[in-house]
Amino acid sequence: MNDRIGNDMTDLKPSASQGSPFRDEFPELLVKVHGHDLVYLDNASSTLKPMAVLDAERTFYSTSYANVHRGVHRLSQMATEAYEDARRKVANFIVSRSANEIVFTKGTTEAINLVANTWGTTCIGSGDEILVSAMEHHANLVPWQMLCQRSGATLQIVPLNDAGALDLEALDRMLSPRTKLVAMVWVSNILGTVNPVEEIVAKAHRVGAKVLVDAAQAIAHRPINVQSLGADFLCFSSHKIFGPTGIGVLYGRCEHLDLMPPWQGGGDMIREVEYSEATYADPPLRFEAGTPPIAQAIGLGAAIDCIERWSWQAIQSREEALYTHLQEVLDHVPGLRRIGYAKDRIAVQSFLLGDAHPYDVGMLLDAMGIAVRTGHHCGQPLMKRLGIPGTVRASLSIYNTHQEIEYLGHSLHKVAHMLGISS
Ligand SMILES: *Cc1c(COP(=O)(O)O)cnc(C)c1O
């Protein structure tokens, strides 16, 4: 270990924009944590926000704010245009055929619950099967458990191999005409595994099953084209792609959304209301009861503009270089064990240090200014399957730097030393 990069990060980490061309846009990176420069490696939980997103919300609230879809007055029309413009941006971003295929929700979780409660309630019955993988986030597991309890359908779990890759042969064996839905994460928030979703969609469609893709992680790391992917539903959250909290997206193919009943009732989702009954608006408004997250939609639109300005090519090549560097650094930490080493992985690395509890490692890193996630990462069944209490997870984004990764490696050496872990 190199003594020169010893006690503090100051000699390691250049401040401000040095090291990443994207850093200047993210004001929170200037925050100090326990007296150290913040090293934010919790991007799979949520990303930091660029100025352009903060500005977009502030400008909206201070110049053209009003409720949408309700008023003939000028400001309400401006707000409606801005909200619908955000919807078109999302549609273009994921290359959907029409903005009508984009439903705004609170996030990935609500999008999946929406599908379970509308499409699920009408299309899933007793004897049907729903397939999910063993690496699902609770958001793509619990709503299906609840649907199965209501409907008498059964939930099947597609296993993983030891590296954390999906067992595709098992998937082949499990798919049958009874399979009505395959709900699958594209990129695992715990293992970083990238699932071959195009292949999975094709296999599922061959037996007549529909496919829902949890793209909560994938959306941050690669361009998505829902038409070439061919999935029936796809979900993601704004806050993991530099946008505000409180908004997410359900993409659904028109032919499905058209047939789905509403979920929540209220204003905005209706066509005609009598005291005894109501008729419903067409999608997407049918699924957006009540005043929607207007400013958040505008913020999400601004985040998409940022990604397009930065370019996927720049984002991907930067993340790849950082990820490779992270792997090299972790290789040298004594007693470090990777959790998740499938061949196709992205931006996320879970690990354990000797026998240390992940919380202890996380707390010691926090004291050094490093934000990593510790625990089960909303994947308790997977932790049980792996026989571990949780992991420490470092997850990367474009504003991270090679110096930060060196500093992480360095700090992990210190932590290992403090906890008496040798190899
Ligand atoms: C974060 C995440 C979710 C849940 O997203 P919310 O924004 O909390 O609704 C679901 N699946 C995966 C893979 C995630 O990473």
Question: Could you give the topology of this structure?
Answer:
Layout: E1 32-33, E2 36-37, E3 39-40, H1 51-63, H2 74-93, E4 102-105, H3 108-117, H4 119-123, E5 129-133, H5 142-151, E6 154-158, H6 168-174, E7 179-185, H7 197-206, E8 210-214, H8 218-221, H9 226-229, E9 233-237, E10 248-252, H10 254-259, E11 270-273, E12 278-280, H11 294-310, H12 312-331, E13 336-339, E14 348-353, H13 358-367, E15 370-371, E16 373-375, H14 380-386, E17 391-395, H15 402-418
Parallel strand pairs: 3-15, 5-6, 5-7, 7-8, 8-9
Antiparallel strand pairs: 1-2, 4-10, 9-10, 11-12, 13-14, 14-17, 16-17
The structure holds pyridoxal-5'-phosphate.
Characterization of the model:
With 423 residues, this protein is α/β, with parallel strands linked by helices. 38% of the residues lie in helices and 16% in strands. It is built from 15 helices and 17 strands. The chain starts with 31 loop residues before the first strand and ends in a 5-residue tail after the last helix. It has two domains: 2-51 and 311-418, Aspartate Aminotransferase, domain 1 (Alpha-Beta Complex); 53-308, Type I PLP-dependent aspartate aminotransferase-like (Major domain) (Aspartate Aminotransferase, domain 2). It has a seven-stranded mixed beta sheet with strand order 4-10-9-8-7-5-6, sandwiched between helices. Strands 13-14-17-16 form a four-stranded antiparallel beta sheet, with helices on one face. It has helices at 51-63, 74-93, 108-117, 119-123, 142-151, 168-174, 197-206, 218-221, 226-229, 254-259, 294-310, 312-331, 358-367, 380-386, 402-418; strands at residues 32-33, 36-37, 39-40, 102-105, 129-133, 154-158, 179-185, 210-214, 233-237, 248-252, 270-273, 278-280, 336-339, 348-353, 370-371, 373-375, 391-395. Residues 1-11 and 13-17 have low confidence and may be disordered.
